[in-house]
Amino acid sequence: ECFAGMGPARLEDVLKKLSCHAVMNLHLKTPKGSKQPYDEAQLQKLLHLIHKYDCAKHVYIMSGNDTVLRQLRALAPNLILCCGGGDAPEEIVDRAIAIGCRKVQLVKGHFDQSMIRKAHDHGIQCNVFWSDDPQEARLLLQMGVDTILTNAYPKIAAVVKAYRATEERRPYAE
User: Fold this and answer.
1) CA distances from 46 to 38, 88, 96 (A)
2) Contact 119/82 with Cβ under 8 angstroms?
3) Contact (Cβ atoms closer than 8 angstroms) between residue 62 and residue 84
4) Alpha carbon distance 165, 171 (integer Å)
5) Could you tell me the pTM of the whole model?
6) How far apart are CA 139 and CA 135, in angstroms?
7) Residue 29 in 3-state DSSP?
8) What's 171's DSSP letter?
9) In this structure, are residues 86 and 68 in contact, taking their beta carbons and an 8 Å threshold?
10) How many CB atoms are closer than 10 A to CB 113?
11) Rounded CA Rg of the chain
């Protein structure tokens, strides 16, 4: 009800408001199975906004389309990129290494602890999409996941805080 009558937020407004205050995951969607590049003029507009609002250290761009990630790598070599599952979620870490991504967005049911280890061995942070369940979130943290995307932020943030404050934090515990 508090948002009644409001239209959708424009990306520029979000970047302007949240720059340097939040880490933002910008997800570039493409049709399933698409290996097509993104329109370069649209990517240039996005990159312009990121730089205009000094967001380069506070955003990362996620896509499951390796062609788009390679485009972005060529256009903005220092931008943080995140490899999504796309059509090959089991190969996500190898794809991220090949493209030079600094993050992966793992998909539940399509990863294991060895993939997390390999990502970490290559300096890649591991997000998981998604968990709203505190017990599941704790298990993901025990596996070594760095970030849990969630719709239940207060509940999952409390689990993360408690986990990081205890001796429960044993990386790669079996």
Assistant:
1) 11, 26, 21
2) no
3) yes
4) 14
5) 0.90
6) 6
7) coil
8) T
9) no
10) 15
11) 17
Instruction: Determine the pLDDT at residue 169.
Output: 52
Averaged over successive runs of 10 residues, the pLDDT of the chain (174 residues) comes to: 77 94 93 87 97 96 97 97 95 98 96 97 97 97 96 97 78 48
CA angle 94, 123, 54 (to 5 degrees): 105
N-to-C CA span, the chain: 45
Torsion sign (Cα): 30, 68, 126, 109: positive
pLDDT, residue 16, reads 94
Q: CB of 89 within 8 A of CB of 53? A: no
Amino acid 9 reads A
pLDDT of the residue at 174: 42
Q: List b or e across 31-63, with b for residues whose CB sees 16 or more CB atoms inside 10 angstroms.
A: eeeeeeebeeeebeebbebbeebebeebbbbbb
Strands, DSSP E only, in 38-120?
A: 59-63, 80-84, 103-107
Helix, strand, coil: what percent of the chain each, to 5? Answer: 40, 15, 45
- Output the pLDDT for position 147: 97
Among 120, 118, 168, residue whose Cα is nearest residue 147: 120
The predicted pLDDT at position 83 comes to 98
pLDDT of residue 173: 46
Give the type of residue at 107: V
CA distance 69 to 78: 12
